[in-house]
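Internal ticket #5521
Category: modeling
Description: The requester needs a full-assembly model to guide mutagenesis choices. All entity lines are attached below as received. Residue total reported by intake: 475.
Assigned to: D.W.
Attached entities:
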Amino acid sequence: MEPPKIWREKRGKYLAMGVECSDCMIKQFPFTEKCSACGSENVKEYKLATTGKVLHFSTVTQTTDEMMGSTPYLIAIIELDDGIKVTGQIVDCNLNEAKEGMDVRMVFRVLARNGSEGLIRYGYKFAPI
Amino acid sequence: MNKVGIVSFGSYIPRYRIKIEEIAKVWDEDPIEIKAQSQINSKSVPGPDEDVATMAVESARNAISRWKGKEKDLGAIYVGSESHPYVVKPTATIVAAALDVEKSLTAADLEFACKAGTAGMQMCFGLVKSKMISLGLAIGADSSQGRPRDPLEYTVGAGSAAFLIGSENIIAELEGTYSVTTDMPDFWRREGAVYPSHGVRFTGQPAYFKHTIDSSKGLMEELGTKTSDYQHVIFHQPNAKFPQAVARMLGFSKEQVELGLICKQMGNAYSASSILGFANVLNHANPGDQILLTSYGSGAGSDSFSFTITEAIDNIRPYKYDTQYYLNQCEYIEYGKYVRFKGILR
């Protein structure tokens, strides 16, 4: 991933910062400069809830080169306590321990390392509570 | 003079542990003898997606979320470590962004072997006391390196401790700090080297013991305090024997050193070692308690601090994700998984 993209996505990945439309009050993630519901540009940053429940999960065994060292890993759709659904990795959890309905919280982890000399990308993942 | 002290604190220890027996099995060494020497039963191991930046952020978020102040007031962030993920590109800026406190602040990464965390604390105390900033964040974090089959492989762990330092709502008031610093060839890692080297027995008497004793005595002489004034005392923990021996040499009892001695379960987390012990003491200490903290960093130096716990500590306790929470969250792994997690298998 190129440095400008990592920099642009920083607030979304590090802080789980989404957006709230000041006209229709819809909350969305990731950040967008225009409300995808009403098209308004009158939007402001909104920080997602940091806890939620696992709705669905799956085990990833085949993925991109930079993530292959981490396989197999758990990926899940999480319904956060504010109702927003996000996708994220589940960590600190063995493959046979994951359950639908499991309570999780956001933690800060390495998302991917670009080899041994490239940039390290950081961001949120989820750990069981 | 205005008061200065710790206003909040946070800990982080990775979930994974490896037992001494598991490492000894690989090298056909006697775990009973190794455990007798170090008095360490297991050490913490970072997961494959953890490093000093992630651990520093987790401990700092714990310090902030248990506290009721405004993190936007942060004027300085210092991260002490000898295993920063980048040689060039600061960990402290990642922490600032992950706390959403960019950008009117100063920040830097520090290195002084195992005492870079307390060096950052001293810098924050100075900046707050001189009113250059109102709030500082000092972190000590390490994903410690130990060469396979080296005695260090059995004892070096990982973790992070973070301290918010300010002048309002102080939970542990600083009474004084004192340091000793000499040039000491006891432990080193050259540019580009993966593992540190050390002077084996030379790391003891002239290095760890001399600096820890001189610094602790120097502070107590300066403040006019005596060993019996302190309810708790915390030293750097390369193993569990050294801090207990140095406590005896200084005249402290086993009870005074016990609460801060957490390396038995998690090993030596280098820059986070003494200050994670200190964080564990802060989770349990009572208002009015006096605490002596002395770090040790090879190369070499010691920083000593004397604190008094205030009534305000009960405003930030209890807190779910305290040091004990992370000590209890543990999964033992085998050596094969350990070498994969540590990146030894490439």
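Resolution: model delivered.
Comment from assignee: Chain A touches chain B at residues 10-11, 14-15, 69-70, 89, 91-92, 94, 107-111, 120, 122, 125 (CB under 8 Å).
Ticket closed.
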